[in-house]
Amino acid sequence: MNLDEYYDVAFDLVKQAGDIIRDRINRPKDIMIKSCEVDLVTESDQQVEKLFMDGITAKFPDHRFIGEETTSSGEKVQLTNSPTWVIDPIDGTMNFVHALPHTCISVALLIEKITEIAFIYNPVLEQLFTARRGQGAFMNGKPIKVSGEKELKKALLMQEMGTSRDPEKMKIVFENFQIFTSKVHGMRALGSAALNMCMVALGGADANFEFGIHIWDIAAGDLIVREAGGVCLDPAGGKLDLLSRRVLCASSIELAKEISVLISQYYPERD
Ligand code: LIP
What we know:
This protein has 271 residues and is of the alpha+beta class. It has two domains: 3-143, Fructose-1,6-Bisphosphatase, subunit A, domain 1 (Fructose-1,6-Bisphosphatase, Chain A, domain 1), CATH 3.30.540; 152-262, 3-Layer(aba) Sandwich (D-Maltodextrin-Binding Protein, domain 2). Helices cover 34% and strands 24% of the residues. It is built from seven helices and 14 strands. It has a seven-stranded mixed β-sheet with strand order 3-4-5-6-7-8-9, with helices on both faces. Helix 1 (3-24) packs antiparallel against helix 2 (43-59) and helix 5 runs parallel beside helix 6 (215-227). The model has no long low-confidence stretch (mean pLDDT 96). Bound molecules: L-MYO-inositol-1-phosphate (LIP). L-MYO-inositol-1-phosphate is lined by residues 68, 88, 91-93, 160, 162-163, 191-193, 210, 212-213, 217. Its EC number is 3.1.3.25.
């Protein structure tokens, strides 16, 4: 096993994927609907995922993949101990469709179910977030750190609306806006789960939570936040389970715990 080689090969592929996203964002797109009218996919999502998988397979034929666009809707995700690349080829597809420049490729390598390598790349704003287990987190090669904020009343908090319009899920989203808006400095949402997590890692936001995301939205962000000194938990305060479709990350354990006792919980069907 050669983690340096895995990192270098994936780094080149992530940069190539970024070139496609940057080149296409302002052009007309073929848009297809997935689970509902606000859950979209474009031909670029599919091409980027194929480019990444083909590039890895050519070098490391025994590696496995969990990719957003190759996992059929409703299919159960199989995470084994084999080296597995978890890929969201375009996270923030809705932003990409509208040419809002908060969109990225998100890639994580898990070996024996432990995340070793993570990349989140927004090629439009030229922000490349990278991390390796135990080696810190970086943006464009420079080390990044969470804010360290411990108090909810001074926090900038992120919550996404998500890509489901299920009334039960929407009720929870609105309840949480109501619970937190008057208790924090401000609420934000970039439209990309992966980039929201990077903002916590960068110290630009203090915490982020979302229900209904998938493993490909958060696997890379989880490592980047932890390597930047932050915490990633289940929103009820327990250990993060990447397949649970629930995430809470924060700049400190104190802040994460304060959020987890107030938050209105939602338990989607697991990945
Ligand atoms: C989406 C995220 C969005 C989040 C959704 C979904 P996609 O990913 O980026 O911010 O709210 O749950 O996961 O579909 O653009 O890759």
